[in-house]
Design a protein that fits this description.
alpha+beta; 3 domains; four-stranded antiparallel sheet; 8 helices
């Protein structure tokens, strides 16, 4: 007999040939075991059953029976049971805030959630959406009356790349209507670059935040990394268009003056 510790508890473990010497007779089929009975594992050990529960998960058409030992719960639809730590089928599958950042096409409900949040949501002093705004936006779209669950799921959606792009697109329209467009960002960067006497860390963070909301940092869904090609923002393209127009006008004026000079001679 060996005393084993697992999941914070201690329990007895026997080798199958030695269990009969201690008056222990494991049942033939571990799936039929009840609380207090002993079962033989597929790796030749004998352990005691601490409980038997039946669950009715929404994702399954039939009830699922779990056999609980000191190693954890084991569903009876599994082929074998082993004397090793079992997966926690309730907590190990619980979402922990990571792994939902795959860049896939959003659903109509997800788009509606983002549109509702950016239209009616509030931002706190740290530049983040308030918890109440996320809960209200999520519950107004999805059938979820649990605020804690709605907050968790809403925050998980906001971590996805395509959701960030949707937020940036919606916030861009609001910022442009307020006069905070590409020209404003460019002008603020220019002022900060020229004013070397004033500490600009705080103001630079604010400008960067607006620039991010305008979508300057958002990556396109399909990018082609071609040598010699430079990606320009809308503001830079606008500025280049103005410079190009100026060059054309100057060239036209210069050409016209040259023609008039040739005519006089």
């Amino acid at each position: 007999m060996k005393l084993v510790q697992c999941r914070g508890k201690s329990f007895e473990l026997y080798e199958y040939p030695d269990c009969t010497n201690h008056g222990i007779n494991p049942i033939a089929n571990w799936r039929d075991a009840r609380k207090g009975e002993w079962i033989k594992t597929a790796d030749g050990k004998v352990i005691k059953v601490l409980g038997r529960t039946v669950k009715n998960p929404k994702t399954s058409k039939k009830p699922v029976t779990y056999i609980r030992t000191g190693y954890g719960n084991r569903p009876t639809y599994k082929k074998n049971i082993y004397a090793s730590k079992q997966k926690d089928w309730h907590n190990d599958h619980y979402y922990k805030g990571k792994g939902l950042t795959r860049d896939v096409r959003p659903t109509e409900l997800q788009n509606a959630f983002v549109d509702n949040l950016t239209k009616c949501g509030s931002i706190n002093d740290h530049g983040m959406w308030t918890a109440d705004s996320i809960v209200d936006a999520y519950q107004s779209i999805y059938s979820d009356n649990n605020p804690t669950q709605a907050l968790r799921r809403g925050m998980a959606l906001l971590k996805r790349d395509y959701i960030k792009r949707r937020v940036a697109m919606n916030m861009r329209d609001k910022l442009v209507d307020s006069g905070l467009d590409d020209d404003w960002v460019t002008e603020k960067y220019r002022e900060l670059a020229e004013n070397s006497e004033t500490p600009a860390a705080t103001r630079l963070n604010a400008v960067n935040k607006v620039s991010e909301l305008l979508g300057h940092n958002a990556k396109e869904k399909t990018e082609e990394h071609t040598e010699g090609i430079i990606a320009l923002s809308d503001g830079q393209i606008k500025q280049l268009a103005g410079i190009r127009k100026k060059f054309i006008e100057e060239e036209y004026v210069g050409t016209s003056s040259k023609k008039r000079t040739i005519t006089k001679n």
